[in-house]
Amino acid sequence: MEKYSGYSVEQFASDPDFISWVKTPDSLSRRFWREFLIDDPHMKCITSQAKAIILSLEFNDKLTGSEKEAIWDHIQTAIVHETSS
């Protein structure tokens, strides 16, 4: 669990295990993330933002590198705008 303690929204949103929990949770992943948030309650806001990003995106494995970069730039701008409001 220490691995995730300093994660940013972007890191959670691109972490395969986190994405798997968000999109297809099972009992093991539910338990892991529940315990993680009990141990690190300050991460709840960050994980909630990352979860919202994952659920709002339609993943397309055929995107080019520049398309992926443009999407991340858009996400980061939205996060900065949201946290500064």
What would your notes on this structure say?
- With 85 residues, this protein is an all-alpha fold.
- It has a domain at 2-60.
- The chain has helices at 9-14, 16-23, 27-39, 44-56, 65-84.
- The protein is globular, with a radius of gyration of 14 Å.
- The model has no long low-confidence stretch (mean pLDDT 88).
Which labels suit this protein?
85 residues; mainly alpha
Brief write-up:
The chain has 5 helices and no strands. The chain is mainly α.
Helix amount: over 70%
Main beta sheet strand tally, sense and closure: none
Structural class: mainly alpha
Q: What is the end-to-end distance?
A: 31 Å
Number of helices: 5
Order of helices and strands: HHHHH
Q: Per DSSP, what share of the residues sits in E-state strands of 2 or more residues? A: under 5%
Give the beta-strand count.
0
Q: What would you report as the Rg, rounded to the nearest angstrom?
A: 14 Å
- Residue-averaged pLDDT: 88
Q: Give the uncertain stretches in residue-range form.
A: none
Q: What's the overall geometry?
A: globular
Secondary-structure blueprint:
Layout (H helix, E strand, L loop, with lengths): L8 H6 L1 H8 L3 H13 L4 H13 L8 H20 L1
